[in-house]
Amino acid sequence: MATWFSYEYSTDIAATRHFYGELVGLEQVWDTADDIAFVHDCVQLTFHRVDSVEQPDDWAHQPGWADGQLPDAPATRPVRSVSIALPPAAFRDAVARLRAAGVKTLRPEPFWVGYWSFVVQDPNRLTVELTDPNSPPP
């Protein structure tokens, strides 16, 4: 199996560790003072500590929203984002943990756009779409 790597930046490694590890539930595979990495299936998501990084106040463009699947989609702009597909139970657990932690959400509940979607912002305001592509529609 091939591994695909994504490299991002964080101004707060501890907050990033908590968000992606404890709240989203990804497996942590690397942790130093300046870098942290998580693996999910064949993807490794790595964050390097920096003193500053662009932190947009609005949401990143997500392709499904532009196709009319989310009629009341918010205004978006071309900034970084990630989408993480989770099995149904892991998706429900992550949604519950993120909501309990008070993380900024696009909508308070998961919504259907051809799959279940729950969109949040990470500690650096990166748009993160958690998805459950396996559960049936409402």
Overview of this protein structure:
The chain is of the alpha/beta class. It has one domain: 2,3-Dihydroxybiphenyl 1,2-Dioxygenase, domain 1, CATH 3.10.180.10. The protein has three helices and ten strands. A four-stranded mixed β-sheet has the order 1-4-3-2, with helices on one face. Strands 7-10-9-8 form a four-stranded mixed β-sheet, covered by helices on one side. The termini are far apart. The relative contact order is 0.20. The mean pLDDT is 89.
Compile the SSE list and pairings.
Blueprint: E1 4-10, H1 13-23, E2 27-31, E3 35-40, E4 43-49, E5 59-60, H2 63-69, E6 76-77, E7 81-85, H3 88-100, E8 111-112, E9 116-121, E10 127-132
Parallel strand pairs: 1-4, 5-6, 7-10
Antiparallel strand pairs: 2-3, 3-4, 8-9, 9-10
Q: Uncertain regions: pLDDT < 50 for 5+ in a row?
A: none
Strand order of the largest sheet: 1-4-3-2
Q: What CATH architecture would you give?
A: Roll
Strand percentage lies at 25-35%
- Helix-strand string: EHEEEEHEEHEEE
Tell me the count of domains: 1
CATH fold naming: 2,3-Dihydroxybiphenyl 1,2-Dioxygenase, domain 1
- CATH homologous superfamily - what is it? 2,3-Dihydroxybiphenyl 1,2-Dioxygenase, domain 1
Enumerate how many helices there are, as a single number: 3
Mean pLDDT reading: 89
Structural class computed from helices and strand pairing: alpha/beta
Q: What is the highest CATH level, the class?
A: Alpha Beta
How much helix is in the residues?
10-25%
Q: What is the global morphology? A: globular
Largest sheet: 4 strands, mixed
Q: Please tell me how large the radius of gyration is.
A: 15 Å
Number of strands: 10
Span of the ends, CA to CA? 34 Å
Keywords: Dioxygenase, Lyase, Oxidoreductase
Domain Glyoxalase/fosfomycin resistance/dioxygenase: 11-130
InterPro entries: Glyas_Bleomycin-R_OHBP_Dase (IPR029068), Glyas_Fos-R_dOase_dom (IPR004360)
Organism: Flexivirga oryzae
